[in-house]
C-alpha cells in the first residue's frame, strides 16, 4: 500500500510526527465509496445515514459501540460473487469473517454456499437452515465429535488437513454407513502477504499437507484407498487481504500439477479445485481491490490454461471469500469520550470500545479510516489516533487518521470496513461487553446479534 510519510502540508501542528499516514482528504466530510458500504451517505443535516437511517438514531436506539451492517450491500456483494462465478463454479462464504443466523439465511437466499471451521459455526449454519450439502467443513484439528457431527449432518465436503484426519473422517463415515465427500488441503509453497507474496520452497505453518515433498500425493494415495471417503478434489488457500493475482497463479499451477500426477498414477481425474479465499478489500482510500467478475475471470483463465497444458479436463472451481463479501458492508459506530491533544505529536481520541471490538489494529497493524458521523465540520483537520478504553497502550482502533479539529466528546465517529474479523474476533477483555450487530435495510433496522450484558458475563462466571 502506498502511504506517504508525510501529508501534503501540516495543517494541525507546525511539525507533524513521524508516521505512516496519508494526507488529509480535501474534504473530511466526504465518504469514499471504496471504503463505505453501498447505502452510506449523509442527510441534509450532514449526519451519516445507512439504509436510509441516521446514525444518531441508531446510536440512540441501540447504543454505542455498535457494528452497523448494510444488509442490501451484503446481499449485493454476495450476489456479485455468485453471478461472477456462474453455474460452473461454487462460492463458499467463509463464515469465520462474520457469522450469524441472519447472515446464513441471506447467503442461502442469494445462492451461496458456506465454509465453516468449527462445531460452533456448523451449529449456527445448521440452526439457520443452511442445507448441509452446501456446507464445507474446515479446520486443522477438528475434534472427533465435530467430525462425527459433520458427517452425520451430511455436509457437502470436509476439507482434510492432515494424515490423521484422513483416517478419522474415513472411520467416522464408515461407522455411520456413509461415504463422505472430501477435499485434501495442500500447501503449495506460496506465502501470500497483504501486499506481496513470497514463493517458498518449504512450508512452515500448521495448515494443509505440503505438496513439494510428495506428502500431498501420499495423502491422495491413502484417501483414495479408503471406502468411507469420496475424494472430490484439492484445496489451497494462500493467505489474506491479497490484491495481486499472481499468488493464485502459482497455486493453481502447482495444484494442477498434483491433479496431473494423480491422474497419471491412479487414472483418476479429480473433479474440483478450491482456491480458497483471501481477496483484499479497501480499508483506506489507498487500497484498490478487484471486482468479483475480474477475479472470477482471472481464476478461471488461470485454471483452464494450466489444465490445457496438463491435458486435463478443467475441474470445477470453488472459492471461499469472507472478507471480500462482509468486510465493506459494516462500520463500527463509536461515541467520542475524551479528546487529548499532545502538543507536537497528535490528538488522542478515546472511544467507548477498542481492542475488544476490533483487535485487528493491535494484532496485524491493520489500517482503518474514520469519519465524524453525527455532523459535518469545516474545522481544520487534526492528526488523530483513535484509541479504545482498555487498559493498555496498544489499544488502538485507528492508528493515524485525520478528523476535524473541533471534534468533541459526544460526537459519533464511524470506522468503516469492520464487517470482517471484528465481531468474529471480539473479546470480553476488561469485561467489555461485545457490541451488537445491527442490520439496516430500506429504512428499517434490526439487531441480528444482540449486545452482551453484565448478566451474560456473570452467567458464565459460575463461582
Ligand atoms: N478459506 C480458508 C481456508 C481460510 O483459512 C480463510 C481465512 C478464508 C477462506 C477466508 O479468507 P478471507 O477471504 O476472509 O480473507 N483474522 C484475519 C484473517 C484470518 C483469515 C483466516 N482464514 C484478519 O482479520 O485479517
Task: Give an overview of the whole structure.
The chain is an alpha/beta fold and 463 residues long. It has two domains: 13-70 and 328-460, Lyase, Ornithine Decarboxylase, Chain A, domain 1; 138-321, TIM Barrel (Alpha-Beta Barrel). Helix content is 28%, strand content 24%. The chain has twelve helices and 23 strands. The protein has helices at residues 55-62, 71-85, 101-110, 119-127, 144-153, 163-175, 215-225, 246-266, 292-309, 323-326, 360-364, 454-460; strands spanning 41-42, 48-50, 53-54, 66-70, 89-94, 113-116, 135-137, 157-160, 180-187, 190-192, 197-199, 209-210, 229-235, 272-274, 316-319, 330-342, 346-351, 371-372, 381-387, 396-404, 412-416, 437-441, 444-449. Strands 4, 16, 17, 18, 19, 20, 21, 22 and 23 form a nine-stranded mixed beta sheet that branches. Strands 5-6-7-8-9-13-14-15 form an eight-stranded parallel barrel, surrounded by seven helices. It has a three-stranded antiparallel beta sheet with strand order 1-2-3. Helix 5 crosses helix 6 (163-175). The N and C termini lie far apart (49 Å). The chain binds ligand LLP. Ligand LLP is lined by residues 94, 96-97, 115, 138, 237, 240, 276-279, 320-324, 360, 364, 420-421. Ligand LLP binds at residues 94, 96-97, 115, 138, 237, 240, 276-279, 320-324, 360, 364, 420-421.
